[in-house]
Amino acid sequence: MSLVRRVQLALAAILLAVLAWAALAPLRYPTRELGFDFPRTPSPTAAPQPGRVRVPGQVWLTLGVRDVLLLRNRDAAPHVFGQVRVLPGREFRLPFEQAGEFPFACDLAPGARVLVQVLEQPDPGWARLRWRLMTLFDALRTLPLQAPDE
What we know:
The chain has helices spanning 3-24, 126-141, and strands at 33-38, 58-62, 68-73, 79-81, 84-86, 91-95, 100-105, 113-119. By secondary structure, the chain is α/β, with parallel strands linked by helices. It has one domain. The strands form three sheets. A three-stranded mixed beta sheet has the order 1-3-6, with no helix packed on it. Strands 2-8-7 form a three-stranded mixed beta sheet, with no helix packed on it. Strands 4-5 form a two-stranded antiparallel ribbon. The radius of gyration is 20 Å and the shape is elongated.
């Protein structure tokens, strides 16, 4: 058997082992909270400029894994998320106890809404593998990109 063929078989075995782990391993996170930050504006009287502050259209939570939305206000002005007013420098934990879709208005995106999608904890197997892949792609999609400071 050639070296190339052995390397291909070894890579295939490693991929199958990773997929089996992803489908069967228990779901654990260091915290059940998912952070949602209100960023600091340049001055206390300045309002966030449309297009400068990125507000996600959808937030994914999973019961029993990450089922608390942590609203953090890093700004000098209060902000509103749904019916919750978060004062400057404060945090508010918004727990979810049932699966479903929950739309919230957010003052950082006037006229828009943030849809909080709460999923059931996936069973081991294909559902858990799908959940892990969805979580990975969502994390990559929402990676914060920042230009270097000049």
